[in-house]
Amino acid sequence: MASTTPGYxxxxxxxxNTINNVLTRTQTTRHTLDPSTEVPLxxxxxxxxxxxxxxxxxxxxxxxxxxxxxxxxxxxxxERFADAIEANLADFAALLGREAGKPVQAANMELAxxxxxxxxxxxxxxxxxxVEESEERTASVRYVPLGVGVxxxxxxxxxxxxxxxxxxxxxxxxxxIWKPSPFAPYSALKLGELGALVFPPGVLQVxxxxxxxxxxxxxxxxxxxxxxxxxxxxxxxxxxxxxATLKRVTLELGGNDAAIVCPDADLATVVPKLGALAFLxxxxxxxxxxxLYVHASIYDAFLTQLVAFVKTLxxxxxxxxxAFTGPVQNSAQYARVRGLYADIxxxxxxxxxxxxxxxxxxxxxxxxxxPPTIIDNxxxxxxxxxxxxxxxxVPVLKxxxxxxxxxxxxxxxxxxxxxxxxxxxxxxxxxxxxLEAGTVWVNSHFELAPHVPFGGHKWSGxxxxxxxxxxxxxxxxxxxxxxxx
Length: 485
Description:
The protein has helices at residues 49-68, 71-86, 89-100, 104-121, 160-171, 186-195, 213-218, 232-243, 267-279, 299-311, 331-347, 383-386, 402-410, 425-432, 467-472, and strands at 17-19, 22-24, 29-30, 44-45, 129-133, 137-145, 148-152, 175-179, 204-206, 225-229, 248-252, 258-261, 291-295, 350-353, 373-376, 393-399, 414-415, 417-421, 439-442, 457-458, 461-462, 475-483. The chain is an alpha/beta fold. 36% of the residues lie in helices and 20% in strands. Pfam families: Aldedh.
């Protein structure tokens, strides 16, 4: 299908890399499968070292002129890019459904947030700060761009997370190479093609490839910064590779977010919110609720209501407008999450809902579907509690002592997000501030905004994306001393 909007006409059936504003092919191609149907999707390029070298050279050549453009002019390019994406919105939503397995409402939500993020970021500025002003001298701190940046983007939010790196990088004067996940390259390739109609050559480039492409980019001496979103295990490899050339690096890694439900929580309000936040995108979001700690006095009522709510969530393929949960995105992740389901019988966990043999929808003839599953109060040392499932399975655990539940929530190598739910907002905030995570919420979870930084503690990351703090990560601070003669 093709957009017919004048000036921004795209063919959504063929896919190319974008290098220096030229659509390029490669001798070798590959494809992924639609996770809802397992039908093969179109062929995409497999970038070579020569392609990487060409993109880095183009980014370096474009950098000097791009960084010198006024920031308002760079912002105007981002706003035109948002307009161009919006002109192709229906096609991008359909493409997200096919490549990521997102139901219609989830695909539309990602695109709406991504467009809002792009436009809001275009309005942000990194200020130059005067830290001393006297009769003899002035000292100020400004932030200058790094050069060629690389964004390595995961498969679960292939548009939003890519644009959330791109906008900050370009606005601060860097050039940008987008490397999408091999499992979900399609939207990014179309965004690169669209970007060639908006940005000067070499400013925005997109390279699709196999597992070898990431290391080629992280090791390249011409790349100044890498921003990576993905697993903690891969993040360690990215950081090690970047160390050889002292690249700047931002890592947004896995999460195992805890939500603490206090005894005074209003279950009629809290249960639907937490049920949706646990199973949004079938649990395949780093900031989904992964561990639910519920006070013992309300535990049974909470669990009963949670099961009833989750039963109302329709699981279906991306084409079903009423679907809330869809498939697991790829076969490798499906096999990994299915292993947790296999642990149910082996570890003798109590199942409140789902499982491979319990209530709820089961494996369909085609597609990587797993039933939404709730595990009733497993031991804290259980794999389902310790590991991030990244699938539609969540444990609910009892607590009775505040100090103990804070300790249990913090007893993880992950520290991305955490939340506290209570009618006593002041007490909930007191508890939230004791949690070891990059973002904490009171009576909400997975609440994000373009002007608020987003990142993790511990093994959940280094540095932040988004907001002015995220923009500073695409810059070197520079102290400027002026002696008044």
